[in-house]
């Protein structure tokens, strides 16, 4: 055994295994990160396989032939064959980290460049260590060696848990400083310059980051109470995450606003006085050399990182540990928070599509669809009959949360829809009908279902062509009720500003033009409408292709919106 000691270097790693090729050339060295600082005096050269001190740990590890792993914080989607694509949570082998911004990595058989900011190095590099540790666990080697990672009294798993706890505390303190710099370095200075910034602009650029800052200070204070500085591995932090899980939902507003913040900031940065002003703010606050949009991305990154940290903490927490159940529950809770934020972001991205859809419908009447709804559940063509009327009608139905809209196709141009009415789903019960004569209306139905108002004054008989399509509609009605209940439980709702902005965007996206053979009542209707119906950039024939059951896989025209955001895998 021998020890490599380099004077003045800061990081210490324990090498627990080496793989050498022909001729004794080092091919791989497996290391565990021990601590920052000098080698402790109690370390024995004969007890420890190898101790290495280094100033640039990742470069030193790679140059020594060690396998270094990083974990993806979010998706890297690329069409460049020289870049490495991956999803959040993927583990990447870092092959070259010479460039601080772009690293070269490998996932199975794929290699390529990827942004270093999209990943984080694992707290420890234990994945390739399994080959070494398994024999110890099976008793094939001296098990006493397993306790020599940081002295004779601290087993490996407890050491790893200490590392994760320390990382959580360290990153949390850094994050608080970061938020403080934004609030005091930028927002405070911006408010002094009323000639340059309105309150509305500041709200758009910075969102609710001040609210996040106040919450995170409270959260860190609770974490510090549960943190054991002398023995980090016995700290119990899981309960802290559980206690504040609902408060983390304030990140939803920030994440939803972030694209608007980037757009507003981009417009301002085209003017030199704003460029100089923001740079002066950064220098006065002595912040690192990153642009403001980079600083504003940090809360989005942070909320994505919590589940990763808790997953790693759970991995190194013994089931007998007092913190185990709380950490396990906290991991589920933070995953749910991330899912909720991601779902809300997707829903908000949907509303522009819904507003555009409404603007394409001729003769729209009543309130805007966004006044009550924010999600298209299902759509398709049904045969409708509403007693006491006996005549059946072919209509296109669009089921949203809280309501269902039905329209008529134009007789000559089947790609044009005319508004014919809506059904309040909050007041309706759905009944599955057997084939044959329906007793209340005395009408023969096949593949039918009935919508009955709870007051009994409305009845709608709906029929489809195939039994399987009927089942799909029944599932859709169940999904609609489930969606409404979930929104009520999570407190999701659109603000008036969001509704108005979506309708305004729909109006702005299309020039006002007069359709061929337009009649006077159409213009009378435009005058009466709060939000005029306008031609849409999305032709209605495309809506039919996507809304009706298709030969290919069925999907709605906004079903996949938000699929490539940082929060989805």
UniProtKB/TrEMBL annotation:
This is Rho guanine nucleotide exchange factor 4. Residues 375-482 form the PH domain. InterPro entries: DBL_dom_sf (IPR035899), DH_dom (IPR000219), GDS_CDC24_CS (IPR001331), PH-like_dom_sf (IPR011993), PH_domain (IPR001849), SH3-like_dom_sf (IPR036028), SH3_domain (IPR001452), SOS1_NGEF_PH (IPR055251). Residues 1-19 form the signal peptide. Residues 65-124 form the SH3 domain. It is found in: Cytoplasm. The lineage of its organism: Eukaryota, Metazoa, Chordata, Craniata, Vertebrata. Keywords: Cytoplasm, Guanine-nucleotide releasing factor, SH3 domain, Signal. It comes from the Eukaryota. GO terms for molecular function: guanyl-nucleotide exchange factor activity. GO terms for cellular component: cytoplasm. Residues 160-344 form the DH domain. One of its GO terms (biological process) is intracellular signal transduction. It comes from Neogobius melanostomus.
